[in-house]
Design brief:
With about 400 residues, this protein is α+β, with helices and mostly antiparallel strands. It is built from 14 helices and 16 strands. β7 and β8 form a beta hairpin. The longest helix has 16 residues. The protein is globular, with a radius of gyration of 23 Å. About 30% of the residues are buried. GO terms for molecular function: shikimate O-hydroxycinnamoyltransferase activity.
Length: about 400
Amino acid sequence: MRGIKIISTSTVRAAASHDIEFSTRKIELTPWDLQLLLMDPIQKGLLFHKPNTFSQNNTQRLKTSLSRTLDFFPPLSGRLATINHHDNTTSFFINCNNAGALFVHSRADGVTVSDINDTVYPLLAVQVTELADGIFIGCTINHTVVDGTSFWHFFNSWSEISRGFDRVSKPPVLNRWFLGGTNLPIRISFPNDHNKVLFDEIMDIESQPLKERVFHFSKESIAQLKAKANAEIDSNTPISSLQAVLAYLWRSIIRCSDTHPDRESSYRLLIVQAGTVTMKAGELLERGLGFVAREMNKMVALHTEEKIRSFLESWVQEPKLLTEGNMAAEALVTNSSPRFNVTCPGSGNKSHGKITVFSGVEEGSIDIETCLLAETLEAMGNNSEFMEAVTL
Protein backbone atom coordinates (compact mmCIF):
# COMPACT_ATOMS: atom_id res chain seq x y z
CA MET A 1 0.00 0.00 0.00
CA ARG A 2 1.44 3.36 -1.05
CA GLY A 3 1.90 6.36 1.19
CA ILE A 4 -0.49 9.21 1.87
CA LYS A 5 0.19 12.66 0.44
CA ILE A 6 -1.02 15.65 2.44
CA ILE A 7 -2.68 18.14 0.10
CA SER A 8 -3.64 20.79 2.64
CA THR A 9 -4.22 21.47 6.32
CA SER A 10 -6.47 24.17 7.69
CA THR A 11 -8.38 25.24 10.78
CA VAL A 12 -12.18 25.12 10.69
CA ARG A 13 -14.06 27.26 13.19
CA ALA A 14 -17.73 27.38 14.11
CA ALA A 15 -19.53 29.60 11.61
CA ALA A 16 -21.75 31.54 14.02
CA SER A 17 -22.64 30.24 17.44
CA HIS A 18 -26.37 29.72 18.10
CA ASP A 19 -25.62 30.18 21.79
CA ILE A 20 -23.60 33.33 22.49
CA GLU A 21 -23.18 32.37 26.14
CA PHE A 22 -21.63 29.03 25.25
CA SER A 23 -19.21 30.54 22.75
CA THR A 24 -17.20 32.06 25.60
CA ARG A 25 -18.03 29.62 28.35
CA LYS A 26 -15.71 27.21 30.06
CA ILE A 27 -16.94 23.70 30.81
CA GLU A 28 -15.79 22.01 34.01
CA LEU A 29 -14.93 18.33 33.63
CA THR A 30 -16.47 15.49 35.63
CA PRO A 31 -14.68 12.46 37.10
CA TRP A 32 -15.94 10.46 34.09
CA ASP A 33 -14.12 12.93 31.82
CA LEU A 34 -10.98 13.47 33.87
CA GLN A 35 -10.12 9.80 34.33
CA LEU A 36 -9.61 9.61 30.53
CA LEU A 37 -7.10 12.47 30.28
CA LEU A 38 -4.21 10.14 29.45
CA MET A 39 -6.11 7.75 27.20
CA ASP A 40 -5.83 7.76 23.43
CA PRO A 41 -8.44 9.79 21.56
CA ILE A 42 -11.39 8.15 19.84
CA GLN A 43 -10.46 7.56 16.20
CA LYS A 44 -13.11 6.38 13.78
CA GLY A 45 -14.10 7.02 10.21
CA LEU A 46 -16.41 6.14 7.36
CA LEU A 47 -15.45 4.80 3.95
CA PHE A 48 -17.35 5.80 0.81
CA HIS A 49 -17.04 5.01 -2.87
CA LYS A 50 -15.91 8.15 -4.68
CA PRO A 51 -18.61 9.94 -6.68
CA ASN A 52 -17.89 10.42 -10.37
CA THR A 53 -17.73 14.19 -10.00
CA PHE A 54 -15.65 14.49 -6.80
CA SER A 55 -13.57 17.67 -6.88
CA GLN A 56 -12.04 20.34 -4.69
CA ASN A 57 -15.54 21.77 -4.32
CA ASN A 58 -16.60 18.62 -2.47
CA THR A 59 -13.82 19.14 0.07
CA GLN A 60 -14.84 22.76 0.53
CA ARG A 61 -18.46 21.71 1.09
CA LEU A 62 -17.28 19.29 3.80
CA LYS A 63 -15.37 22.12 5.49
CA THR A 64 -18.36 24.44 5.26
CA SER A 65 -20.76 21.86 6.69
CA LEU A 66 -18.25 21.03 9.44
CA SER A 67 -18.08 24.72 10.35
CA ARG A 68 -21.87 24.93 10.59
CA THR A 69 -22.00 21.70 12.62
CA LEU A 70 -19.52 23.12 15.13
CA ASP A 71 -22.10 25.83 15.85
CA PHE A 72 -24.01 23.12 17.72
CA PHE A 73 -20.90 21.51 19.27
CA PRO A 74 -18.85 24.46 20.65
CA PRO A 75 -16.63 22.27 22.87
CA LEU A 76 -15.24 20.53 19.76
CA SER A 77 -14.08 23.88 18.41
CA GLY A 78 -12.41 24.74 21.71
CA ARG A 79 -9.30 23.72 23.60
CA LEU A 80 -8.43 21.80 26.74
CA ALA A 81 -7.11 24.30 29.27
CA THR A 82 -5.39 23.96 32.64
CA ILE A 83 -5.05 25.96 35.83
CA ASN A 84 -2.07 25.35 38.11
CA HIS A 85 -3.05 26.01 41.72
CA HIS A 86 -0.88 27.17 44.61
CA ASP A 87 -1.20 23.80 46.36
CA ASN A 88 0.63 22.05 43.47
CA THR A 89 -2.58 20.67 42.01
CA THR A 90 -3.91 21.14 38.50
CA SER A 91 -7.45 21.50 37.23
CA PHE A 92 -8.68 21.09 33.67
CA PHE A 93 -11.58 22.56 31.73
CA ILE A 94 -12.80 22.95 28.15
CA ASN A 95 -12.32 26.47 26.88
CA CYS A 96 -15.06 27.05 24.27
CA ASN A 97 -13.02 29.75 22.54
CA ASN A 98 -13.71 28.66 18.94
CA ALA A 99 -10.00 28.17 18.26
CA GLY A 100 -11.10 25.67 15.65
CA ALA A 101 -10.75 22.05 14.57
CA LEU A 102 -7.93 20.68 12.43
CA PHE A 103 -8.97 19.72 8.89
CA VAL A 104 -6.57 17.67 6.75
CA HIS A 105 -7.11 16.90 3.07
CA SER A 106 -4.94 14.06 1.80
CA ARG A 107 -4.64 11.65 -1.09
CA ALA A 108 -3.61 7.98 -1.06
CA ASP A 109 -2.72 7.29 -4.69
CA GLY A 110 -3.07 3.68 -5.70
CA VAL A 111 -5.07 2.75 -2.59
CA THR A 112 -8.55 1.40 -3.30
CA VAL A 113 -11.61 0.73 -1.18
CA SER A 114 -10.87 -2.99 -1.40
CA ASP A 115 -7.39 -2.42 0.09
CA ILE A 116 -8.99 -0.92 3.19
CA ASN A 117 -11.76 -3.47 3.38
CA ASP A 118 -9.09 -6.19 3.49
CA THR A 119 -7.15 -4.77 6.27
CA VAL A 120 -2.13 22.95 22.89
CA TYR A 121 -3.99 20.77 20.28
CA PRO A 122 -7.41 20.78 18.71
CA LEU A 123 -9.93 18.61 20.53
CA LEU A 124 -11.25 17.58 17.11
CA ALA A 125 -9.27 16.69 13.99
CA VAL A 126 -10.78 15.61 10.68
CA GLN A 127 -8.93 13.99 7.80
CA VAL A 128 -10.50 13.52 4.37
CA THR A 129 -8.44 11.10 2.29
CA GLU A 130 -9.04 10.54 -1.41
CA LEU A 131 -8.46 6.94 -2.48
CA ALA A 132 -8.23 5.75 -6.07
CA ASP A 133 -11.94 4.89 -6.04
CA GLY A 134 -13.19 6.13 -2.70
CA ILE A 135 -13.20 8.70 0.07
CA PHE A 136 -12.33 8.08 3.72
CA ILE A 137 -13.50 10.61 6.29
CA GLY A 138 -11.84 10.09 9.66
CA CYS A 139 -12.32 11.92 12.97
CA THR A 140 -10.12 12.05 16.03
CA ILE A 141 -11.69 13.52 19.18
CA ASN A 142 -10.19 13.87 22.63
CA HIS A 143 -11.72 11.16 24.83
CA THR A 144 -12.01 13.60 27.72
CA VAL A 145 -14.52 15.61 25.71
CA VAL A 146 -16.69 12.86 24.23
CA ASP A 147 -17.54 9.20 24.68
CA GLY A 148 -18.51 6.76 21.93
CA THR A 149 -22.15 7.81 21.89
CA SER A 150 -21.24 11.50 21.65
CA PHE A 151 -18.66 10.78 18.93
CA TRP A 152 -21.21 9.22 16.60
CA HIS A 153 -23.80 11.84 17.57
CA PHE A 154 -21.42 14.47 16.24
CA PHE A 155 -20.65 12.46 13.09
CA ASN A 156 -24.35 11.94 12.35
CA SER A 157 -25.10 15.60 13.03
CA TRP A 158 -22.38 16.61 10.58
CA SER A 159 -24.00 14.32 8.03
CA GLU A 160 -27.34 16.08 8.55
CA ILE A 161 -25.84 19.52 7.98
CA SER A 162 -23.97 18.21 4.91
CA ARG A 163 -27.28 17.03 3.48
CA GLY A 164 -28.75 20.52 3.73
CA PHE A 165 -30.45 20.64 7.12
CA ASP A 166 -30.34 24.01 8.89
CA ARG A 167 -30.21 22.50 12.37
CA VAL A 168 -29.28 19.15 13.85
CA SER A 169 -32.20 16.90 14.75
CA LYS A 170 -30.81 16.10 18.21
CA PRO A 171 -29.02 19.07 19.78
CA PRO A 172 -26.24 17.92 22.13
CA VAL A 173 -26.52 18.27 25.89
CA LEU A 174 -23.41 20.26 26.76
CA ASN A 175 -23.86 20.72 30.51
CA ARG A 176 -21.96 18.30 32.74
CA TRP A 177 -23.57 16.65 35.77
CA PHE A 178 -21.79 16.61 39.12
CA LEU A 179 -22.58 14.78 42.33
CA GLY A 180 -23.99 17.14 44.95
CA GLY A 181 -21.31 18.65 47.15
CA THR A 182 -18.54 18.39 44.54
CA ASN A 183 -16.15 21.32 44.84
CA LEU A 184 -15.24 22.74 41.43
CA PRO A 185 -12.88 22.69 39.77
CA ILE A 186 -11.73 19.17 40.59
CA ARG A 187 -8.01 19.32 41.35
CA ILE A 188 -5.51 16.62 40.45
CA SER A 189 -2.13 16.23 42.08
CA PHE A 190 0.68 14.92 39.86
CA PRO A 191 3.88 13.44 41.34
CA ASN A 192 7.12 15.23 40.52
CA ASP A 193 8.19 12.27 38.39
CA HIS A 194 4.76 11.72 36.81
CA ASN A 195 6.23 11.60 33.28
CA LYS A 196 8.48 8.69 34.27
CA VAL A 197 5.63 6.91 36.08
CA LEU A 198 3.37 7.17 33.04
CA PHE A 199 6.16 6.04 30.71
CA ASP A 200 6.84 3.00 32.89
CA GLU A 201 3.15 2.06 32.92
CA ILE A 202 2.88 2.35 29.15
CA MET A 203 6.09 0.40 28.49
CA ASP A 204 4.95 -2.33 30.89
CA ILE A 205 2.72 -3.61 28.11
CA GLU A 206 4.97 -5.37 25.63
CA SER A 207 4.31 -4.48 22.01
CA GLN A 208 4.03 -7.47 19.71
CA PRO A 209 3.17 -7.75 16.02
CA LEU A 210 -0.55 -8.31 15.49
CA LYS A 211 -2.66 -9.58 12.63
CA GLU A 212 -6.17 -8.50 11.69
CA ARG A 213 -9.30 -10.37 10.74
CA VAL A 214 -13.03 -9.64 10.77
CA PHE A 215 -15.44 -12.26 12.13
CA HIS A 216 -19.13 -11.84 11.25
CA PHE A 217 -21.82 -13.04 13.66
CA SER A 218 -25.27 -13.17 12.08
CA LYS A 219 -28.47 -12.33 13.94
CA GLU A 220 -29.34 -16.04 13.95
CA SER A 221 -25.93 -17.05 15.31
CA ILE A 222 -26.13 -14.48 18.10
CA ALA A 223 -29.61 -15.71 19.02
CA GLN A 224 -28.29 -19.27 19.23
CA LEU A 225 -25.40 -18.23 21.50
CA LYS A 226 -27.81 -16.34 23.73
CA ALA A 227 -30.20 -19.29 23.90
CA LYS A 228 -27.34 -21.69 24.67
CA ALA A 229 -25.99 -19.48 27.46
CA ASN A 230 -29.41 -19.12 29.08
CA ALA A 231 -30.15 -22.84 28.75
CA GLU A 232 -26.96 -23.75 30.61
CA ILE A 233 -27.82 -21.79 33.74
CA ASP A 234 -30.66 -21.65 36.22
CA SER A 235 -31.17 -17.94 36.76
CA ASN A 236 -34.03 -15.49 36.92
CA THR A 237 -31.80 -12.89 35.28
CA PRO A 238 -31.49 -13.61 31.55
CA ILE A 239 -28.15 -13.41 29.77
CA SER A 240 -28.06 -10.68 27.12
CA SER A 241 -26.90 -11.14 23.53
CA LEU A 242 -23.79 -9.06 24.21
CA GLN A 243 -22.86 -11.03 27.33
CA ALA A 244 -23.25 -14.30 25.41
CA VAL A 245 -21.05 -13.10 22.53
CA LEU A 246 -18.36 -11.67 24.83
CA ALA A 247 -18.28 -14.85 26.91
CA TYR A 248 -17.99 -16.90 23.72
CA LEU A 249 -15.15 -14.70 22.51
CA TRP A 250 -13.27 -14.76 25.84
CA ARG A 251 -13.40 -18.55 26.03
CA SER A 252 -12.26 -18.85 22.42
CA ILE A 253 -9.27 -16.52 22.89
CA ILE A 254 -8.14 -18.42 25.99
CA ARG A 255 -8.65 -21.78 24.26
CA CYS A 256 -6.61 -20.72 21.25
CA SER A 257 -3.80 -18.93 23.12
CA ASP A 258 -2.47 -21.98 25.01
CA THR A 259 -3.04 -20.37 28.40
CA HIS A 260 -2.11 -22.71 31.27
CA PRO A 261 -5.25 -24.11 32.98
CA ASP A 262 -4.09 -22.94 36.43
CA ARG A 263 -3.37 -19.42 35.32
CA GLU A 264 -5.94 -16.82 36.28
CA SER A 265 -7.62 -14.91 33.48
CA SER A 266 -9.56 -11.70 34.06
CA TYR A 267 -12.12 -9.98 31.89
CA ARG A 268 -12.41 -6.28 32.64
CA LEU A 269 -15.42 -4.38 31.34
CA LEU A 270 -14.65 -0.68 31.10
CA ILE A 271 -17.43 1.72 30.17
CA VAL A 272 -17.42 4.55 32.70
CA GLN A 273 -16.43 2.34 35.63
CA ALA A 274 -14.42 -0.85 35.49
CA GLY A 275 -15.80 -4.21 36.57
CA THR A 276 -13.75 -7.39 36.55
CA VAL A 277 -14.52 -11.11 36.27
CA THR A 278 -11.65 -13.42 37.24
CA MET A 279 -11.31 -17.20 37.04
CA LYS A 280 -8.69 -19.79 36.18
CA ALA A 281 -8.29 -20.60 32.50
CA GLY A 282 -9.18 -24.24 33.11
CA GLU A 283 -12.40 -23.31 34.89
CA LEU A 284 -13.22 -20.82 32.15
CA LEU A 285 -13.18 -23.57 29.54
CA GLU A 286 -14.70 -26.36 31.64
CA ARG A 287 -17.69 -24.53 33.14
CA GLY A 288 -19.31 -23.65 29.82
CA LEU A 289 -20.64 -20.61 28.00
CA GLY A 290 -23.58 -20.04 30.33
CA PHE A 291 -21.46 -19.97 33.48
CA VAL A 292 -19.02 -17.43 32.04
CA ALA A 293 -21.83 -15.24 30.70
CA ARG A 294 -23.60 -15.37 34.07
CA GLU A 295 -20.44 -14.22 35.86
CA MET A 296 -20.33 -11.24 33.52
CA ASN A 297 -24.02 -10.63 34.16
CA LYS A 298 -23.47 -10.69 37.93
CA MET A 299 -20.54 -8.28 37.65
CA VAL A 300 -22.63 -5.79 35.66
CA ALA A 301 -25.50 -6.07 38.17
CA LEU A 302 -23.16 -5.00 40.99
CA HIS A 303 -22.83 -1.55 39.43
CA THR A 304 -25.74 0.01 41.29
CA GLU A 305 -26.47 3.71 41.72
CA GLU A 306 -25.05 3.49 45.23
CA LYS A 307 -21.78 2.01 43.96
CA ILE A 308 -21.46 4.61 41.20
CA ARG A 309 -22.07 7.47 43.63
CA SER A 310 -19.46 5.99 45.95
CA PHE A 311 -17.01 5.81 43.04
CA LEU A 312 -17.61 9.47 42.18
CA GLU A 313 -17.11 10.59 45.78
CA SER A 314 -13.89 8.61 46.24
CA TRP A 315 -12.48 9.61 42.84
CA VAL A 316 -12.79 13.30 43.65
CA GLN A 317 -10.94 12.71 46.93
CA GLU A 318 -8.20 10.64 45.27
CA PRO A 319 -8.18 11.04 41.46
CA LYS A 320 -6.68 8.21 39.43
CA LEU A 321 -6.11 8.61 35.72
CA LEU A 322 -6.49 5.62 33.44
CA THR A 323 -3.59 4.57 31.22
CA GLU A 324 -3.11 1.69 28.85
CA GLY A 325 -0.81 0.19 31.48
CA ASN A 326 -3.04 0.22 34.56
CA MET A 327 -6.11 -0.68 32.50
CA ALA A 328 -4.75 -3.63 30.55
CA ALA A 329 -2.45 -5.37 33.02
CA GLU A 330 -3.45 -8.95 33.82
CA ALA A 331 -6.77 -8.79 32.01
CA LEU A 332 -8.74 -8.92 28.82
CA VAL A 333 -10.33 -5.49 28.60
CA THR A 334 -13.56 -4.51 26.89
CA ASN A 335 -14.74 -0.94 26.65
CA SER A 336 -17.73 0.76 25.06
CA SER A 337 -20.60 -1.08 23.35
CA PRO A 338 -21.26 -3.33 20.35
CA ARG A 339 -21.78 -0.22 18.26
CA PHE A 340 -18.48 1.30 19.23
CA ASN A 341 -15.03 0.21 20.40
CA VAL A 342 -14.10 -2.97 22.26
CA THR A 343 -10.44 -3.41 23.19
CA CYS A 344 -8.97 -6.62 24.46
CA PRO A 345 -5.34 -6.57 25.69
CA GLY A 346 -4.54 -10.08 26.85
CA SER A 347 -3.80 -11.80 30.13
CA GLY A 348 -0.47 -11.04 31.72
CA ASN A 349 1.36 -7.81 30.92
CA LYS A 350 1.57 -8.60 27.22
CA SER A 351 -0.99 -6.91 25.06
CA HIS A 352 -2.58 -9.69 23.03
CA GLY A 353 -4.44 -7.28 20.85
CA LYS A 354 -7.56 -5.30 20.19
CA ILE A 355 -11.12 -6.10 19.27
CA THR A 356 -13.56 -3.63 17.74
CA VAL A 357 -17.23 -4.54 17.62
CA PHE A 358 -19.56 -2.98 15.07
CA SER A 359 -23.16 -3.49 14.08
CA GLY A 360 -23.17 -5.66 10.97
CA VAL A 361 -24.77 -4.78 7.65
CA GLU A 362 -27.75 -7.03 8.38
CA GLU A 363 -30.03 -5.88 11.18
CA GLY A 364 -29.12 -7.58 14.46
CA SER A 365 -25.74 -8.86 13.24
CA ILE A 366 -22.29 -8.00 14.62
CA ASP A 367 -18.92 -7.63 12.89
CA ILE A 368 -15.92 -8.16 15.15
CA GLU A 369 -12.61 -6.78 13.92
CA THR A 370 -9.85 -8.62 15.76
CA CYS A 371 -6.21 -7.55 16.10
CA LEU A 372 -4.53 -10.43 17.90
CA LEU A 373 -1.26 -12.30 18.04
CA ALA A 374 -0.81 -14.10 14.74
CA GLU A 375 -0.75 -17.55 16.32
CA THR A 376 -3.89 -16.89 18.37
CA LEU A 377 -5.77 -15.51 15.38
CA GLU A 378 -4.72 -18.42 13.19
CA ALA A 379 -5.75 -20.91 15.86
CA MET A 380 -9.17 -19.26 16.18
CA GLY A 381 -9.67 -19.44 12.41
CA ASN A 382 -8.81 -23.14 12.46
CA ASN A 383 -10.90 -23.93 15.53
CA SER A 384 -14.15 -25.56 14.41
CA GLU A 385 -15.87 -24.91 17.75
CA PHE A 386 -15.31 -21.17 17.43
CA MET A 387 -15.93 -20.92 13.69
CA GLU A 388 -19.29 -22.71 13.81
CA ALA A 389 -20.81 -19.48 15.15
CA VAL A 390 -19.06 -17.32 12.55
CA THR A 391 -20.49 -16.53 9.12
CA LEU A 392 -17.87 -16.51 6.37
